[in-house]
Design brief:
Length: 207
Amino acid sequence: MLKTQIAVLVSGGGTNLQQLINAQEEGRLPHGEIAIVIANHADAYALERAHRHHLPTAVVEKKDCADNREFEQKILALLEEKHIDLIILAGFMTILSADFTSRWPKRIINIHPALIPSFCGKGYYGLKVHQAALDYGVKVTGATVHFVNEIPDGGEIIMQKAVDVLPGDTPEILQKRVMEEAEWILLPAAAELVAQKIAEEKENANA
Ligand code: GRF
């Protein structure tokens, strides 16, 4: 079977990347293969995790590019070189342009640390998402894996998981609970779901 070739795009600590690596090593990502990890910061700890597991890595920094177009072109070249079928945004703190996302319909997935359509879209990233949930006073939040299109956090939803907000929660405490109880479970499961679909399509196209 032709496995779905996956690129994981990261910016930070890479705990979600780690869950994808664990899933691959434990046989929970049978239809996919992480072919490259691309970071937009050379000091992203996620790169360290990739190296430890002998995964190919690349760094594309905006400061080395004339503009956003060149930044995206460099990423696109890497994706082509590695014959990538599926892009997973795992804490990638940059919004990809409509020009980029329109080339990859239903081929880019993202994890967002809230139940979309709550607390999402432009400006809702990192701890700000959890701060907004606490400020609003919701009693349940969670995480969402969705396809990426030209609308930030606006693409079709693939999977969601709810997490309780508890008395005394700070944005940091809530972020940790949402990661442990939702993100780290959802992302590998959604990756396999989408990877399986793409692998089957590749198989049929080759038949
Ligand atoms: C996660 O909360 C993810 O939902 C978000 O950024 C964070 C990334 O964490 N968009 P990590 O780098 O995977 O540890």
